Amino acid sequence: MTETAVYAAGGVVWRMLDGKLLVLAIHRTKYRDVTLPKGKVDPGETLAETAVREIHEETGIRVHLGVPVGISNYRLPSKRTKIVHYWSAQATEKAIRESAFVPNREIAALEWMPARKALGKLSYPVDVEILEHFLRLVDDGVLETFPLVVLRHAKATAREDWTDQDAARPLTPRGKKQAKAIVGPLRAFGVRRVYSSDAVRCVDTVAPLAKALRRDVRRTSAISQDAWDAGTADVRTLVGKRVRARKPAVICSHRPLLPDVMHEIALATGTVKGSYLGDASALEPAAFSVVHLSATNPGSGIVAIETHVPKA
């Protein structure tokens, strides 16, 4: 991010009703326009967290983020550039029923409309472009997706400063802050299952997330540094199970194993390999890559990958 730009995030919120794809538009009170839900980033917030929060604040609907569907750029009256990141976001029937939205000073009304009809209803060309990108994904058959998140453990005590077993190396104070900072962004993508190397630095990285989710950390030596050093690591089994399960999950491991994790996801989904896999696995401590896969046909290949770096 740059200091001169104004950053915001939002989403194309969608649902299926009687076999028809509907998207949600908001009618703003002050501007008398029809647009997509979005809002500015709050201090200390990631773009993914902003998108989830703003969608909820403007519509009352709680969502998890799916595939990124574009970035809009436009000039504000102040001459500053506004940059808005958008994701696809499915609204479940339960979430819609639980919405407490009422017309207010900011949002006059919500309107569910057929996705293609919305192209002619939105007030701004930049919103139309985002919706067109979303509809291309629909045409490609990847409306419903699930994420596999590849996470590098947070900052740990350096090897040269540690005299005990390597697997027992703890997180540094900064690493502990990073572990807490990634909880919000990971929850924005709907992660429900937590898998980790059994090394202390990995388990402690995902412990705050597991606590927030009220889930156990599923530890395995198969993706540990010790196993990799010994040549006995087994990334393929874990990745294969997670692809078949089609459930949002995070896999926390070590830097040397991350290329193998990405490689196995590509193999398990029939994805053509390329340099993008290396980019997605070259993560700094506590950074993570979200790999979006088709929920109906994960063997059709990776839909999208996005990488996030912790604020802490």
Please tell me about this protein's structure:
α5 (173-181) packs parallel to α7 (200-213), α9 (235-245) crosses α10 and α10 (258-268) packs across α11. The strands form 2 sheets. Strands 1, 2, 3, 4, 5, 6 and 7 form a 7-stranded mixed sheet that branches. It contains 11 helices and 13 strands. The model has no long low-confidence stretch (mean pLDDT 96). β12 (288-294) and β13 form a beta hairpin. It folds into 2 domains: 6-139, Alpha-Beta Complex (Nucleoside Triphosphate Pyrophosphohydrolase), CATH 3.90.79; 145-308, Phosphoglycerate mutase-like (Rossmann fold), CATH 3.40.50.1240. The protein is of the alpha/beta class. It has helices spanning 47-59, 93-97, 115-118, 125-139, 173-181, 183-188, 200-213, 225-230, 235-245, 258-268, 275-281, and strands at 6-17, 20-28, 34-35, 38-40, 68-75, 81-90, 107-114, 145-152, 193-197, 217-220, 249-253, 288-294, 302-308. It is globular.
Which short descriptors sum up this protein?
single chain, alpha/beta, Nucleoside Triphosphate Pyrophosphohydrolase, Rossmann fold, 2 domains, seven-stranded mixed beta sheet, six-stranded mixed beta sheet, 11 helices
